[in-house]
Amino acid sequence: MTAVIILVAIAVVLIVFIIALYNKLVKLRNMVDNAWAQIDVQLQRRLDLIPNVVETVKGYAQHESTTLDAVRLARLWRAQALPRAAWEPTTTLPRLSKACSRWPKPIPT
């Protein structure tokens, strides 16, 4: 009689262990599925933001193009307004060497 009770107790403990193990495995599988779903959500959010980034870059490129055109026009007007000798390197170099000659001499160590 005690042998039967011991066998039934072992069987019950074994069944409870198997059920607990199965439930833990199901829980872990659900956690993995949830983690992959979160990754999919983040990738979809990133994919949804790409058109916004493209529009921002287009707007910035338009601004840069406008600024570059303004700089080109300003340089052209400046070049046409000044006499040619004012912006040639031959007249700039003597002024640069005069400025460099006034630079303090290094102290020997």
Q: What structural class is derived from the secondary structure elements?
A: mainly alpha
Biggest beta sheet attributes: none
- Unreliable sequence segments: none
Q: What fraction of the residues are assigned to beta strands by DSSP? A: under 5%
Helix proportion: over 70%
What is the mean pLDDT?
Answer: 82
Provide a count of the helices.
3
Report how far the terminal alpha carbons are from each other.
105 Å
Oligomer: single chain
Give the overall shape. Answer: elongated
User: Helices and strands, in N-to-C order?
Assistant: HHH
Radius of gyration: 40 Å
How many beta-strand runs?
0
Give a brief rundown of this model.
This protein is mainly alpha-helical and 109 residues long. The chain contains three helices and no strands.
Key attributes of the depicted protein:
mainly alpha; 3 helices; 89% helix
Structural write-up:
The protein has 109 residues and is mainly alpha-helical. 89% of the residues lie in helices and 0% in strands. It is built from 3 helices and no strands. The chain is elongated, with a radius of gyration of 40 Å. The termini are far apart.
Q: How are the SSEs placed, and which strands pair?
A:
Elements: H1 2-81, H2 84-87, H3 89-101
